[in-house]
Amino acid sequence: MTGHPDAATVLADLLLQREALVCRLAEGRPPRDFAGMYVGPEDLDRILTSLPGLDGPTPLLTAEVRKRTDPDLKRARAEFLSMLDGDVPLAVLTRTAGLAVPDAEVLAVLAAVETSPARQRLVAYVQDSVQQPLLTVATLARIFADPDHPADRCVAPGSPLRRAELVEVAADGPWATRSCGLPARVVWHLRGDGSADAGLPPGSARLPASRQRTTTAGAGAGTPGGGGSPAGAPAGAAGVNGTAVGTGVGGSAGPGLLLVHGGDRESRRRTVERHWPDQGRLICPMPETGLQWAAVVREATLGDLVVVLQSTAAPDAAGADVMVRSTHLNWALSSPGELPLESVPARPWREIRVASGEAGPEDWREVLGTEPDPAYRLTRGQLRLVAAARQDTTGPLGPAVRRLAGGYLDRLAVRIRPRRGWDDLVLPGDDLRQLRELAARHRRRGTVYGDWRFPPVPSTGVVALFSGASGTGKTLAAEVVAGDLGLDLYKVDLASVVSKYIGETEKNLERIFVAAGAGDLVLFFDEADALFGKRSEVSDARDRYANIEVAYLLQRLESYDGLVVLATNLQRNIDQAFLRRISVAVDFVLPEEPQRRAIWARSFPPTAPVADLDLDFVARQFKISGGLIHNAALGAAFLAAEEGDVITMRHVILAIKREFQKLGRLRTEAEFERYFELVNRDADAAPTR
Predict the structure, then answer these.
(1) pLDDT of 265-298, one tens digit each?
(2) Is CATH 3.40.50.300 the right assignment for the domain spanning 239-354?
(3) Quick one: which of 648, 649, 654, 686 has its CA closest to 667?
(4) pTM attached to this predicted model
């Protein structure tokens, strides 16, 4: 089938030529330019004499023609059978698809016609119709002319050729005139081209076998399933960090179905690879249409591949039927969780649970050539992505890991690269100690849970609760802790996470936790009571699903191994279930006068031009938060810059006035004292340069 005469094309040519001789010599049919366009008187006579029960010279003449060509045809069939023990594409495909010899002969004839315009003209002559250049079902039965040869039954709906999607038969018209052909992918394969089927589900990939197949080339030629890979591992075989938990119906050796769940996607792939090491794999999403299912079956058959379907759900009824019919293929269903038993296709199956997807020392050495970095807990799939993103193979791993997490989190959270440290944080001494203890809990997890073997119940993660009024330093504290640990801080954008559509909030949160788990970063949930609030009485469907979101979030928080900071204005708004999970709780209160004095002083950089600032006065008189102090200092700087002047008390007092106006707060003489007239004027004097 590769352009030069071989046993397959010789056999096909002899069969077609013999039938052409029958038409020419026995039936006396001359070639016509408009064959099949009309029925003339001579056509009617020939048709009548060929019908069963009517005598005529044709059967005797036909037998004579067939008798003369039988020796050549016998030799061609013997050579074709010998060829099936070789390694040409047609022979390998015959074994992979589990075809019997008659199936292979039909496939060879159809392929020969598909690849030759001359043969197509010959077929049109045999079928007496220029409109039928491909063999019809009836002509298939006629050219083999052997009552013991299945011929037309080789292209029946349940035949091996049809189950393997190697042959296409026209869906309409009379049975006898339905044309038979090969999908383009099959023709290209027989011609030596290995391009993937264009009909595969988007995102499909073909991976080679992990070891060389040891079976002989000719084993099982003409036997269904011959040469195919057995189900491989024994019933108790374990996958990557996994255990076999059951054997389905049957459980015998041979092509079968493997259910793999748990861990991460890469670990499940490796489990399939270890189960069938001498077969390549076709990795693809669950097909959505009949054409995609056909392309998957065809591609796996042509490449002798295990089909690995990646999905969170089992195939639908139509897909399950395809898997049941394709008995020559091995299938694997890869899913994060267990599939319902009633949805498993009705064929022998085994199940393997992948206990963990975390990359081990051997994975680190294989992918990066180094020992594991205790700072990062990466799955096998994430480890390979990090290796691909790493610019400098000798440099630190942190930038590549952050790049991995950022690709997912940047759509749902705001990245804050810490720039401020402990000196920028003005808090009571006990609060500062709690924050340092929080950083220490995260930094020393390896020692406590690893070296000292404390049980990580429920996980090694650290959850902190920062409560207090707005502007008291919760976000700044989270940034300082992240900076002390050398981690990025991601402030979760609640507007992009919380959805009115049922189930979407959980999906968004899952993306956040999965990505954050790879990057070893700090997750900061501001206004956390919007997500972690108390569960309410169920009065309608929305209440019920809101409570489900809270329950899901609690479960996800308990299994997360990183650092999470929850910030809320009121601690009592947080559900008690979350409070039990809190490792460190810090209550941020309005700063006292000494803290306010320190915050005012640090709000003006040393390079800022200031003159006669009475920081003791503003610290004593105005009981405001650190956030308002920073805003007022910045506002005073802009007022002074616009006037082309240095920053004075006048600018500071006017900036405080603006902050009070934003809050709707009254300006009293008791607070502003000697500056009360300045802030209480109907209109300030226009600034001058």
Answers:
(1) 888 988 899 899 999 999 999 999 999 999 999 9
(2) yes
(3) 654
(4) 0.65
